[in-house]
Amino acid sequence: MRKTVILLVILLMVFINLLFVSTVFAGEGCGSHYPGGNEDFMVGAVPPAGSSVFINYLVDYNATTLKGNSGNNVGLGPNNNPKVSFNLNVLVNALRFIKVTNMKLLGGDVGWHVIVPVQYQKVSMDASPVVDIGTQAKTGLGDIEAGMGIAWHPSRTFHHTAWIDIVAPTGAYDKNDISNIGRNYWSFNPLWAFTYIGDKDSPIPGFEVSAKLMYWINTINTATSYTSGQDFAVDYLVGQHIKDWAFGLNGHLLYQTTNDKQYGSKATDPFTGEVTGVKSRFFSIGPAISYNIPHGCLTFKYQRDVWAENRPEGDKFWLKWVYAF
């Protein structure tokens, strides 16, 4: 009996440690500054010099499954029992402004942008009979992103752009909460995006392949001494344009390249308590449809997480409005 009580106490401490480092996906090893799948049609085709663009991203994300180190449904302790009941609801509206200047560098157009997200988030977690943490919801300003880059248009069919983005810890954060809108650390993201779109002389006019390739580097969360590992991430789209419409498949791939660290050493698996290192990986896919409107377009996307490790597994619904002026 005494050994059972001690084991339950140890498991409880491990689980609470997970919650103390919680962020948007209820665990620093289970989330990042980039939700994934943000970009789609024509991502590499930045407007010409002198242009200004406003983009509004509205995304609704819901997940009822939390995956562990091996892609399994998480539970507590080495035997993965009891199972963790998990529910995540996130609604984000992000406002983005892009300015392409008349300045030239390396043969391309220099631009800058800023993204300001406002977010509602609700997290529920339960691992009865060991512990029932409960539910917490928050609404507020998220972590603001800004950056500068260069855009090139070498041909009618191929466009590409390179940027360096920085995310600042502007969102509210409390290490004792299970739901946090901010992540309490800085992130740096060098990226390259491209678009190929067939013109009237191409084998398939209107056929598009676009991708945004990113490498995320994160600083330490000073409240928890936790450093999330570096991520290689890709937003992708394959589609076809037909007059004012565009149809395609889109999604996101994330592959964490380095282990999470805490107090300078490999992070402990928050569920099993084993010092195995923690890496997040996931892949999502779904349909996208876009319609041209005056000065821009409206895009609707659905993305399903089909593979996840140390991540929630759920569904994203996007509505994006692009307006150029």
Characterise this structure:
The strands form two sheets. The chain has a twelve-stranded antiparallel beta barrel. Strands 9-12-13 form a three-stranded antiparallel beta sheet, with no helix packed on it. The protein is mostly beta strands. The N terminus is likely disordered. The radius of gyration is 21 Å and the shape is globular. The chain has one helix and 16 strands. The protein has a single domain, classed as monomeric porin ompg (Porin), CATH 2.40.160.
CATH superfamily: monomeric porin ompg
Helix percentage: under 10%
Count the strands? 16
Query: What's the Cα radius of gyration?
Result: 21 Å
> What is the CATH architecture assignment?
Beta Barrel
Low-confidence stretches: 1-27
Which of globular, elongated, flat, extended, rod-shaped describes the shape?
globular
Mean pLDDT across residues: 88
Strand share of the residues? over 45%
Compressed to H and E, one letter per element, the order equals HEEEEEEEEEEEEEEEE
Please, how many domains? Answer: 1
CATH level-3 fold name: Porin
* Strand line-up in the sheet with most strands: 1-2-3-5-6-7-8-10-11-14-15-16
The secondary structure category is mainly beta
CATH class wording: Mainly Beta
Major sheet size, sense and barrel closure? 12 strands, antiparallel, barrel
